[in-house]
Amino acid sequence: MLTLVIGNKNYSSWSMRPWVLMRQAGIAFEERLVRFDSFAPESRFKQTLQGLGAAGKVPVLLDGPLAVWDSLAIAETLAERFPDKRLWPADPALRARARSVVCEMHTGFAALRGHCPMNIEARLPEVGALLWRDQPALRADVAHLVDTWAALLDAHGGPLLFGDFSIADAFFAPVCMRLITYALPLPAPIRAYVERVAALPGVAAWIADALAEKDFLDFEEPYRLRP
Prior knowledge:
Distance between the termini: 38 Å
Strand order of the largest sheet: 2-1-3-4
Number of helices: 10
Mean pLDDT: 93
């Protein structure tokens, strides 16, 4: 049985990606959650992950003695191991396009990720409004995101980015969570895509678990008082 090691579901966007991918695709796995107590070298979190032979970050996929870390490496490993799940589009040109947008998400959108950390439990429209007003790089990231999603949805007819569920939708699921939390302005078709992603069974299950955690971490939320 595969084991996926993750961090707090309310905060860990990188953990969310392979968890949603596996859950939505019907790939059986066991979950091991390592709480974010701190990211200092001596923290239990870091010590636990180093003991797994990983890079000190989540997620980590354990397959017997093999440890695979980094969400994109995990996604590619799963695509190779479970070709019947069609985690990438079957068409080579679409598959290349899907890999391109996933890699861009993996390395880009720094302003969106930096200014709007994932926090599924929270609703912060007032924070989002101020960020939208004051951060042009955030507005540029969202505009590029809207253009990318609109082109893909128009080209493939939806309901998801490449028609059927794929790694691309799993990788953008935490982005959808950010857009909801901070109530960033979106055109209606893009808002509808965000709502469809949030309603996917795999995503809905992650959201339910995140809401049930009730584990407020002040170092993850410097912008917010304890609820």
